[in-house]
Design brief:
160 residues, alpha+beta, Lipocalin, 3 helices, 9 strands, 18% helix, globular
Amino acid sequence: MKIILRSVSILQLLFFAACSNDAGVKNTSENSKAPEKTTTNPQTNNSPNSDGLVGEWELVGSIVDTNDNLQLDDEEKKNLEKATYKDYMKLNPDGSGLFTAAQMEGHYEIKADESNGRKFMTWYDKANGPHRVGSIMKITKDELTIKEPGGNGLLLWKRM
């Protein structure tokens, strides 16, 4: 199971790295333009200011939720697999943000999942391509726990 979780994490890293390399394909006249600010429609973005998500986060590690309670328990934390790569996100109050170690510009969206009522986070790159992050399981002052989509892995993020 750890191999699957590690493989998914590596695939996410490669995907985000590939997205960030698109900038090198542009011609030099486009590169000289000032970067455009990416924003999102406030009617579709449920920016979670009151939920404590806004700020800078760094991925600490991941763990398989062995008891399927969708929480990172103290016993599971002891077996936390440290992140083998740097992952980063900066979430701004207006829904814009920077994502991955490459700090790609984009925006994020938080929507309540109709089936379970949990909040689901999706990142959108500059081309508005969606990157499913996962369900937000717990937010504290210093930690954010996200359940990976389609699996039973939990990601632990620390506030920077």
